[in-house]
Design goal:
The protein is built from seven helices and six strands, in the order E-H-E-H-E-H-E-H-H-E-E-H-H. With 191 residues, the protein is α/β, with parallel strands linked by helices. Helix 2 packs antiparallel against helix 7 (170-179) and helix 3 runs parallel beside helix 5 (114-120). The radius of gyration is 16 Å and the shape is globular. The structure holds adenosine-5'-triphosphate and magnesium ion.
């Protein structure tokens, strides 16, 4: 099996994530893409929704799409959520493709045991507005989709009472409303 892995904070998951996963799957003929919310993202100071809430949003977002699946693997592991540990656990399931946006590629060599990540998986990089840079790393570029959507923008919109329709699946918006997420700048997020 050719298995894509899209890790992230998913705070919240949005249509950019789904488009990236689907574009990578189409370009690389992946059989499946796992969306893996980080329980404790090592590179993010402020996380707003709980890990279970972020996973629930991802589950709602992928429901009904047989190509995409939510994974709770990083919620069931204590400590910082290192991608290398996730890929080691998933390696027996098939040939791994770690999907990330171009913004992540730019920081990649700061990641925990990044060389091992490259041995465990091929890196599939999806364009992100303003973030595409040449990389000396061996990278499979997934061209063609550039969606200017970020979780940060969605959180700001909710905080300011602006609409998020069209940016997240309806089922995700329903959870955000029901749980009252992102209405204040929790966790001391600046700006
Ligand atoms: P935040 O604004 O909080 O950083 P985000 O939108 O960047 O959130 P993350 O959970 O940080 O979402 O991203 C998870 C992965 O998805 C990263 O590899 C990121 O580059 C990628 N990604 C997020 N949004 C897009 C998008 N619109 N297009 C392509 N890739 C994306
Ligand atoms: Mg991000």
């Amino acid at each position: 099996m050719r298995l894509g892995v899209l890790g992230g904070t998913f705070d919240p998951v949005h249509n950019g994530h789904l488009a990236a996963a689907r574009a990578a799957a189409a370009a690389l003929r992946l059989d499946r893409v796992l969306l893996v919310p980080a329980a404790q993202p090592p590179h993010k100071a402020n996380v707003h929704a709980s890990a279970e809430q972020r996973l629930a949003m991802v589950e709602a977002a992928v429901a009904g799409d047989p190509l995409l699946a939510a994974s709770r693997i990083e919620l069931d592991r204590p400590g910082p959520s290192y991608t290398v540990d996730t890929l080691r656990a998933l390696a027996p399931q098939g040939e791994l493709f770690f999907i990330c946006g171009a913004d992540v590629l730019a920081q990649f060599t700061a990641w925990h045991r990044w060389q091992e990540i490259l041995r465990l998986a091929k890196l599939a990089v999806v364009s992100r507005p303003g973030a595409d840079v040449a990389s000396p790393l061996p990278v499979l570029w997934v061209r063609g989709v550039v969606l200017d959507i970020s979780s940060e923008d969605i959180r700001r919109r909710v905080r300011e009472g602006r609409p998020i329709r069209g940016l997240v699946p309806e089922a995700v918006e329903a959870i955000i409303r029901r749980e009252g997420l992102y209405r204040d700048g929790l966790a001391g997020a600046p700006g």
